[in-house]
C-alpha cells in the first residue's frame, strides 16, 4: 500500500496531493532558510495566523458577489491581503515602538487569529455559501483537492522559488550581516519585507495542504535540519529544499496509504523525523559526533597525563588511564612502562618543557596561545624552531647523587 | 438587562474570562520583558497533544487528567526546546518552532486516530474554548450570589481559574524582588545570590499553569493574546514595572469585559441574530487596546532610539 502510494499509484487525488505537497515542501524549505538564517523563524508563525481573517473576509466577499465561496484563488487572495497587513503591523510595532520582535509576533498572531475566529463564527451564523471547507484551512484538508487547486499551488510554489533564486544574494547578505549590507547601500528594510513577503506567499500557497498552523513547521524544520549538515548558505538552501520536498512527498504518500492519517500532520512529523535524525547523526554538529569528539578528547587527555606520569616515575591510580595506556601498548598491566611507552613518555615530558619555553617567550606569543596541553609541538613549530628551543633547554644533565 | 438574566448567563463567563485574562497577563509582563513572549504561544500549542494523550490513557473526558496531561506536555515542551537549543546550537525561536509545531502535529494525528463520535474533543474547541457555555444554571438573580445551594452549581471552571489566579498572584508577590531584579539585570541578580536559572524555569512553569487552566476554560487564543497584548500595551504606558503590571491588569479586565459584551450583545445591536465567538472577540479587543497604546502611549518609543516615533 505504501509502495503504491510512493509510486503514485493510488489514484488521481492522491497523486495530485503528493505532487502539490512536494512542491510546497521544496518552496517552503528554500524560503524558510533565509528566515531562519536571519533569526526570525517565528515571524512565519505570525504571518500564517494572520491569514485567517483574510480567508474569512475573502469567503464573505465571494458570497456577497454571489458565489458559493469555494473559489480557492479568491480565498488565497484574501488570506494574502490580511497576512500582508499583519506583516506590516508587526514590522511597524518592532520598528516604531519599544516592543521586541517576539512580543510583536505574538501580538499579531493572537489578535489576527482571534479576529479570524470572530469572522468564522459570523460566517457560521450567516448560514450562506458552503462554509464547510473553511475550517480546513486551519489544519489543511487535501481530501477534495481539485486539479485547479493543485495548479494554483504548483504555479505559486514555482513563482516563489524563482523569486527566491533572483534575490537570494541580497537576502543572504542581509541575513548574515545587516550592517554591512546597509553600508553597501542595500535597502535592508525592503529586502526584509521582500523575504517576509515570500514567506507569506508560501504560507498562502500551503494553506490548502497543511493548513495555517502547520505551515510554520514546513518553513522552520527543513532549514534547521539542513543547517546541521553544512556551513555554506547555498548548500543549506538546497538541502532545506530537498528535506522539505522529501518530507512533503513521503508525508503525502503515507497519508494516502491508510485512512485517518491527515496529510498536514504527517508531513510535519516526517519532517521532524529528518530533523531528529540530523540532530543525532550529522557529522560535525550532531549529538553523536559531539559525544565521539568528547570521548576522543577524554582519551587524549588521559594518555597524555599517563605518559607524563610514567616519565616522572609516578604511579598511575586512575583505572581508565591505565587501561588506555595498556591498550596503546605504552604500559603493562601492573603500570610499568614498556619500551615504546618509555620513549613516548620521555618525548611527552620534553614536549612539555618545550612548550614551557615557548609560553615564556614573548616572541612566540601567537604560538603560545595555541597551547592546550594536548597539541603536539611539531604541528605548530618548524624543525628549526624546535631545535632552537632544544638548545635553550640544553642536553641531559647529570643528576647529583 | 436585569439580574435574573445577567447572573445565570453572563456573570460566570465574564468572571472566568476576566480571571483567565489576569492570570495570563501577570506572568506575561515578565515574559515580555525577558523576550520570552512566545513561550505562551508554544505552550498553548502543545496543550493539545497533552490532553489527547491524557484522554488515551484514562479513556475519560474528565478535567483533572486532562489538565495534568496538558501541564505535562507543557513541561515536556519546555525541556525539549531547551534540549534542542543546547544540543543543536540552534537559535531559541527556531528551536521553539521545531518543537511546538511537531508536538501539535502529533496531537492532531493522535486525535484523528482516536476519533470517536461519542467523544467531544476537537481541535476547534481547543482553539476557541467555550466561554459562552460556562453558564450558571442554578442562579436566579443577584440573590443567588449569597445562596450556598445555588453556589454549589457554579461551573467548576470558575473556582479553578480563581485558584490559579490566586496561585499566580502569590508567586509574583512572593518572588517580586528576585523576579524584578533578574528580569532587568540577570548578571546582577546572580551576583547577589538569586538562582536565576531556577527562577526563570519557575516563571515559565507558572505561565504554563496559568495557560493550562485558562485554556481549559477559554481556549488557547485568549491565552496567547493575554500573555502578550495587555503587558505589551502596558509597556507603552510607563517605565515602572509596578505601574506596568497595574496597567496590564486594567487592560486585561478591559479587554475581557468589552470583548465578552461585544461578542454577546454587539451583533444584537447591529441587528444580527446570533453572538460571535467571545474568545476571538476578547483577543481582538486586546489587540485594539495594544494598537491605541502603540499609537499614543506616553512611553511607546525606545528610550534613546534615534529617529523613532
UniProtKB/TrEMBL annotation, chain A:
Keywords: Cell membrane, Membrane, Transmembrane, Transmembrane helix, Transport. Its main location: membrane. It is a multi-pass membrane protein. CDD domains: TM_ABC_iron-siderophores_like (cd06550). Pfam families: ABC-3. One of its GO terms (cellular component) is ATP-binding cassette (ABC) transporter complex. The keyword Transmembrane helix applies. This is Manganese transport system membrane protein MntB. The gene is mntB_2.
TrEMBL record, chain B:
SUPFAM superfamilies: ABC transporter involved in vitamin B12 uptake, BtuC. It is a multi-pass membrane protein. The chain crosses the membrane at residues 6-26, 38-57, 63-81, 93-111, 158-176, 197-215, 221-238, 245-263, 275-296. Keywords: Cell membrane, Membrane, Transmembrane, Transmembrane helix, Transport. It is found in: Cell membrane. The keyword Acyltransferase does not apply. The keyword Transmembrane helix applies. It comes from the Bacteria. Gene3D superfamilies: ABC transporter involved in vitamin B12 uptake, BtuC. GO terms for cellular component: ATP-binding cassette (ABC) transporter complex. Its main location: membrane. One of its GO terms (biological process) is transmembrane transport. PANTHER family: ABC-TRANSPORTER METAL-BINDING PROTEIN (PTHR30477), METAL TRANSPORT SYSTEM MEMBRANE PROTEIN CT_070-RELATED (PTHR30477:SF8). Belongs to the ABC-3 integral membrane protein family. This is Manganese transport system membrane protein MntB. It comes from Ruegeria atlantica.
Amino acid at each position: 500500500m505504501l509502495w503504491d502510494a510512493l509510486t503514485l499509484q493510488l489514484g488521481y487525488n492522491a497523486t495530485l496531493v503528493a505532487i502539490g505537497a512536494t512542491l510546497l515542501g521544496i518552496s517552503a524549505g528554500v524560503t524558510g532558510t533565509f528566515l531562519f538564517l536571519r533569526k526570525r523563524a517565528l515571524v512565519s508563525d505570525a504571518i500564517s495566523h494572520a491569514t485567517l481573517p483574510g480567508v474569512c473576509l475573502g469567503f464573505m466577499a465571494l458570497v456577497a458577489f454571489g458565489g458559493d465561496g469555494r473559489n480557492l484563488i479568491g480565498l488565497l487572495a484574501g488570506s494574502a491581503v490580511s497576512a500582508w497587513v499583519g506583516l506590516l503591523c508587526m514590522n511597524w510595532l518592532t520598528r516604531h515602538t519599544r516592543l521586541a520582535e517576539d512580543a510583536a509576533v505574538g501580538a499579531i498572531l493572537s489578535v489576527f487569529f482571534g479576529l479570524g475566529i470572530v469572522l468564522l463564527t459570523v460566517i457560521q451564523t450567516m448560514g450562506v455559501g458552503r462554509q464547510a471547507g473553511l475550517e480546513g484551512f486551519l489544519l489543511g484538508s487535501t481530501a477534495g483537492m481539485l486539479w485547479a487547486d493543485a495548479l494554483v499551488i504548483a504555479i505559486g510554489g514555482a513563482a516563489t522559488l524563482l523569486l527566491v533564486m533572483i534575490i537570494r544574494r541580497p537576502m543572504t547578505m542581509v541575513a548574515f550581516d545587516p550592517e554591512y549590507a546597509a553600508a553597501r547601500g542595500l535597502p535592508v528594510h525592503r529586502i526584509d519585507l521582500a523575504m517576509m513577503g515570500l514567506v507569506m506567499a508560501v504560507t498562502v500557497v500551503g494553506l490548502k495542504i497543511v493548513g495555517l498552523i502547520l505551515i510554520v513547521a514546513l518553513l522552520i524544520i527543513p532549514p534547521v535540519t539542513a543547517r546541521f549538515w553544512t556551513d555554506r548558505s547555498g548548500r543549506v538552501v538546497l538541502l532545506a529544499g530537498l528535506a522539505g520536498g522529501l518530507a512533503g512527498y513521503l508525508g503525502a504518500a503515507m497519508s494516502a496509504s491508510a485512512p485517518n492519517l491527515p496529510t498536514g500532520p504527517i508531513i510535519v512529523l516526517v519532517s521532524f523525523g529528518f530533523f531528529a535524525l540530523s540532530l543525532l547523526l550529522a557529522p560535525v554538529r550532531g549529538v553523536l559526533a559531539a559525544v565521539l569528539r568528547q570521548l576522543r578528547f577524554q582519551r587524549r587527555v588521559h594518555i597524555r597525563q599517563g605518559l607524563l606520569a610514567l616519565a616522572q616515575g609516578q604511579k598511575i591510580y586512575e583505572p581508565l588511564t591505565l587501561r588506555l595506556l595498556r591498550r596503546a601498548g605504552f604500559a603493562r598491566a601492573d603500570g610499568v612502562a614498556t619500551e615504546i611507552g618509555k620513549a613516548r613518555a620521555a618525548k611527552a615530558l620534553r614536549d612539555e618543557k618545550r612548550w614551557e619555553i615557548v609560553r615564556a617567550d614573548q616572541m612566540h606569543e601567537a604560538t603560545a596561545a595555541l597551547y592546550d596541553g594536548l597539541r603536539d609541538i611539531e604541528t605548530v613549530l618548524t624543525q628549526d624552531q624546535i631545535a632552537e628551543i632544544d638548545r635553550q633547554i640544553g642536553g641531559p644533565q647529570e643528576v647529583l647523587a | 438587562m436585569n439580574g435574573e438574566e445577567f447572573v445565570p448567563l453572563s456573570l460566570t463567563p465574564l468572571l472566568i474570562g476576566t480571571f483567565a485574562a489576569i492570570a495570563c497577563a501577570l506572568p506575561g509582563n515578565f515574559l515580555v520583558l525577558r523576550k520570552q513572549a512566545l513561550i505562551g504561544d508554544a505552550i498553548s500549542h502543545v496543550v493539545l497533544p497533552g490532553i489527547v494523550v491524557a484522554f488515551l490513557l484514562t479513556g475519560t473526558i474528565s478535567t483533572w487528567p486532562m489538565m495534568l496531561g496538558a501541564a505535562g506536555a507543557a513541561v515536556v515542551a519546555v525541556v525539549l526546546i531547551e534540549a534542542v537549543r543546547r544540543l543543536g546550537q540552534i537559535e531559541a525561536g527556531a528551536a521553539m518552532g521545531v518543537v511546538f509545531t511537531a508536538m501539535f502535529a502529533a496531537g492532531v494525528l493522535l486525535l484523528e486516530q482516536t476519533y470517536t463520535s461519542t467523544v467531544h474533543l476537537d481541535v476547534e474547541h481547543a482553539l476557541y474554548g467555550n466561554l459562552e457555555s460556562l453558564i450558571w444554571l442554578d442562579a436566579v438573580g443577584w440573590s443567588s450570589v449569597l445562596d450556598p445551594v445555588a453556589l454549589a452549581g457554579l461551573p467548576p471552571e470558575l473556582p479553578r481559574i480563581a485558584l490559579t489566579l490566586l496561585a499566580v498572584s502569590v508567586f509574583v508577590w512572593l518572588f517580586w524582588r528576585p523576579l524584578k531584579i533578574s528580569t532587568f539585570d540577570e548578571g546582577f541578580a546572580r551576583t547577589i545570590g538569586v538562582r536565576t536559572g531556577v527562577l526563570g524555569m519557575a516563571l515559565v512553569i507558572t505561565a504554563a499553569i496559568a495557560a493550562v487552566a485558562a485554556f481549559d476554560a477559554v481556549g488557547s487564543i485568549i491565552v496567547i493574546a493575554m500573555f502578550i497584548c495587555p503587558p505589551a500595551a502596558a509597556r507603552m504606558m510607563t517605565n515602572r514595572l509596578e505601574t506596568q503590571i497595574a496597567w496590564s491588569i486594567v487592560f486585561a479586565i478591559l479587554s475581557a469585559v468589552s470583548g465578552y459584551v461585544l461578542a454577546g450583545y454587539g451583533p444584537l445591536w447591529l441587528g444580527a441574530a446570533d453572538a460571535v465567538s467571545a474568545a476571538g472577540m476578547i483577543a481582538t479587543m486586546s489587540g485594539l487596546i495594544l494598537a491605541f497604546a502603540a499609537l499614543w502611549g506616553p512611553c511607546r518609543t525606545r528610550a534613546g532610539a534615534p529617529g523613532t516615533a
